[in-house]
Predict the 3D structure of the following.
Amino acid sequence: MNQIKKCTVWLLVLFLLTSCGLRDSDDVGNGRAEGEDDVATETEAAEPELNYDGPAPAAGKGNVFGEIRWNGSGAADLEVLLCADFSSFSGCGGEEFLTTTDENGQYLFEDVVPGVYALSVRVFNSDDWLYISSGILSSAEFEVEAGKTLTIGRQNIFKLDVKLQEPRNGGKVVSAEVLLDWQDYPGADYYKVSLYPDEGDAVLLDKRTNTSSLRADLLPVSCGYRWSVEVFNSDRIKIAETAEPFDFVVDSLDGSCQLAIQEPADGAEIRGAEIVLDWDDSPVATTYKILLWNDDDPDKANVLDFVEVNESSYRFDQTLEPARYVWSVTAYDGNGDKVGGTEIFDFTVLP
């Protein structure tokens, strides 16, 4: 079943056509895990099949017909775009065809050059586009054939106008507990909330609530967080989400979820004997796992494959061969939950 994903126009400009502000997601209401219900999908309700009964395409050309819906009804006056060369990271390219939905949310591309196309929809009066996808970071491919009309079917889109209130974007929280609050959304049956630390496991992952606020326990160390909200109607179809996550920080607690590497320094050049890896201690961690690989090896072979230690350092028994090595550390509490981690550093062992 086709899905719809988000690509934000201003992000394309900002990153020189290298990013689309993507969100990963799967089908609505099918018992999925992360990202459940967070996509627009082909309508599954029992209703007449969408059929095209208009004129045939011109000789050597094809037509494309479909319908866009929002919150159970056809979405009128939305721009719909077909493009021949589409990348999840760079957006549309190559030959393009643009049309607009009618009062019933239906659209028709007439006399399209045969080929394989991607399809995207502008989100009402905004600079945001949703593209129909076939999976994570993968646009759906629609083949237009000469002399035929391709009926894509019905897709549900969502708005990007959920208003987060507290904590405000860029704000501070002074305890290890937070009250997330957002504006009630018209037509909402329930919400799904996600809350992620800068380092560590998700605090909330698609947490369902019927009210427009939710209290959550944070990590017991200072850390930055980002949070977002999705809105669903009574048919379990997503109708809205936040345009971008909000960020906030807790900086008054002991320790940090972001552990600094002490040695070797990033980019250091050292000898291969008696190397010691050292990083900040976490007050809530009981174990650490180290990943280190030989970056000069064609296979990027792991020298330390998530080796577990109970202290914030590791000494090599063997001498490392000359090469560039890349490494990082993650911290875990007694329940096995990730509570911190380092950035990825590298060092070079000299001949």
In short: Residues 8-45 have pLDDT under 50 and may be disordered. Residues 193 and 308 are 33 Å apart (CA to CA). The longest strand covers residues 91-100.
